[in-house]
Task: structure prediction
Amino acid sequence: MLTAVTRKVSLNLGSCQLEFLQRAEIDIAKAAAQHLDYEGCLEDLGARVLSLPALPEYPDCVFVEDPALVLDEIAIATRMGAASRRGETESVAAALEQFRPVRWLREPATLEGGDVVRLGKLLYVGLSRRTNAEGIRQLADLVEPLGYRVITVGVTGCLHLKSACCSVSDDTVLMNPVLFDASAVRNCRVLRVPPEEPFASDVLRIGTTVILPASFPRTGELLESHGFPVRAIDVSELMKAEAGVTCMSLVFDT
Result:
């Protein structure tokens, strides 16, 4: 069974951390409605949704992907680069314990789940504002004995690696090479987002379907032209908080 762990929108989302966008007023009710539609989309595509309650003291708590990484064998509780968000991790780890053994990254490591792009047993990990070299080293120590390979990728033009590059199959990635060191991503098919949609790389693969924001129609056409069914959803209010469709869920088989 496919499971998706999500978390409800905090009433304080308007105080979220921003790195690349200017702050704009967020309609919390609309953001919550869009998030509910997002959860419904996951269910429509066959996932059982485990929706955690919001944490009012953590404005960014809806971005449930960052506190953890779930692989086939284990889950990893990360140590987020944003110190003010580290209190989110414990409740996410507790939810994952029913599905996987949980391993923890330790200080001075920092790593956020949005920096990890998986293609089968290959993990591309962004060296970014939120993930440091020690976090990547500790991750490799945990997963390489399980048969995974970890490759470090420099990220310069966006918050996380997944903002610039996401897998749409086990051998295909969608990317904007301007935002990161694309030379590190090898031995796979590459689709480049249209230049007029530079931040459209953050897409979520569920089975054979690719979820993407409705505000990126050209990227949707590109994916469909290469044989990838697309599900476009409106996450415009959530995107004011630098949301992507990957960062609001942890999706894995159980």
Notes: The two ends are 5 Å apart (CA to CA). The chain has a mean pLDDT of 97. The first strand starts at residue 2 and ends at 7. The chain is about 20% helix and 25% strand.
